[in-house]
Write a structure and sequence with these properties.
Layout (H helix, E strand, L loop, with lengths): L48 E4 L25 E4 L3 H6 L2 E3 L4 E7 L20 E8 L2 E8 L11 E2 L4 E4 L10 E8 L2 E3 L29 E8 L5 H6 L6 E2 L5 E11 L4 E8 L3 E8 L4 E11 L8 E11 L2 E12 L3
Parallel strand pairs: 12-18
Antiparallel strand pairs: 1-2, 2-9, 3-8, 4-5, 4-7, 5-6, 6-9, 9-10, 11-13, 13-16, 14-15, 14-17, 17-18
InterPro entries: Cell_wall_metabolism_enzyme, Dup_hybrid_motif, M23ase_b-sheet_dom
Keywords: Signal
GO molecular function, one term: metalloendopeptidase activity
Length: about 325
């Protein structure tokens, strides 16, 4: 394995101007541009999501290309995240975003080391791959699962070639792929490659073959249970139940989401047999990369009526609904 330093995603992004013409049609790439495919074998919004974008703010504030704050100070890439550790354990492939030649790799770094308190200085990227695409373009893939790197330096590969699997190595607190794009050594945001352009959720030009829709946060999972679960269990991959015993002491609705903003409102509602109804609204007091909320009702005297209970969780921002999840559970008859 070559000895080299794979950079991590906390360097200042896009401070230097990249000389790219603005004379393109909306959404079109220029002839000299690289064209990228999705680098993770998952369905965005279902089995994976984008946790962080490139930080475009030149100062101490944070701003992603869509005018939101789904980033952090100096973040220089795009984080394609998995919702749970169970999804990582099951295995999700990382794919080459464009054809090129493998320049360097690293493997053997433990998953979860940083989250457990280990020092990962000089190895923030963890297990990773760097691909040279010619014309000054490079992509870098960080935080791959230990032992999963499937390519070797010098190998010529096509777009979609399996590079490894999504992991949590290096400076990572959740399972994700950090994809960084550079042109002549300058960081480039594939969603908004023109540094001088104003923020826009639908920029006139991107470097994606099929541009993913901008999503500045949302709900990942909702479920009904008979007691509040722990957040660690939810992040690990707690499965939703479809049935509860007649003796259930409570009916609890929980919700798990990402990239909340201060002022977002999470509404949890449950309806069921015999006119059962429950609703709870909570305004989120601070932004969180991952958030977890729950609310519910204790069983009345004699227990809950048997039958199907249905639940809905919505997340609203500035008065508009941005995400919704539904769940149900059946309570058995006594």
């Amino acid at each position: 394995m070559p000895l080299f330093r794979l950079r991590h995603a906390d360097r200042r992004a896009g401070a230097l101007a990249l000389s790219l013409s603005l004379a393109a049609l909306p959404g079109a790439a220029l002839a000299q541009d690289i064209v990228l495919k999705q680098p993770v074998a998952c369905t965005l919004g279902e089995s994976c999501y984008i946790q962080h974008y490139v930080d475009h703010d030149p100062g101490p504030e944070v701003r992603d290309f869509g005018c939101g704050a789904a980033s952090y100070q100096g973040h220089d890439g795009t984080d394609f995240a998995l919702p749970t550790l169970a999804a990582m354990a099951a295995g999700v492939d990382v794919l080459a975003a464009a054809p090129g030649r493998v320049r360097a790799i690293r493997d053997g770094e433990a998953d979860g080391a940083f989250a457990a308190g280990a020092d990962v200085a000089t190895k923030e990227c963890g297990n990773g791959v760097v691909i040279d695409h010619g014309g000054g373009w490079q992509t870098q893939y960080c935080h791959l699962k230990q032992g999963s790197v499937a390519v070797r330096p010098g190998t010529k590969i096509g777009a979609g070639t399996r590079l490894g699997q999504v992991g949590m190595s290096g400076k990572a607190e959740f399972p994700h792929l950090h994809l960084a794009l550079r042109h002549d050594g300058v960081d480039v945001d594939p969603f908004q490659p023109d540094p001088g352009a104003a923020c826009d959720p639908a920029p006139r030009r991107t470097l994606w073959q099929d541009p993913p829709a901008y999503v500045g946060g949302g709900l990942l999972q909702a479920a009904l249970t008979d007691a509040p679960p722990g957040f660690a269990a939810v992040k690990a991959g707690l499965s939703a139940q479809d049935a509860l015993p007649a003796t259930a002491a409570a009916l609890v609705l929980w919700a798990y989401g990402y990239d909340s903003r201060k002022g977002d409102v999470v509404r949890l509602t449950i309806t069921g047999p015999g006119g059962f109804a429950f609703a709870h609204d909570e305004m989120l007091e601070k932004p969180q990369a991952l958030f977890f909320r729950y609310a519910g009702k204790r069983a009345p005297a004699g227990g809950f009526a048997p039958g199907r209970y249905e639940a809905t969780v919505t997340q609203s921002r500035d008065g508009a609904e941005i995400s919704r999840k539904e769940a149900f559970v059946t309570l058995a008859a006594p």
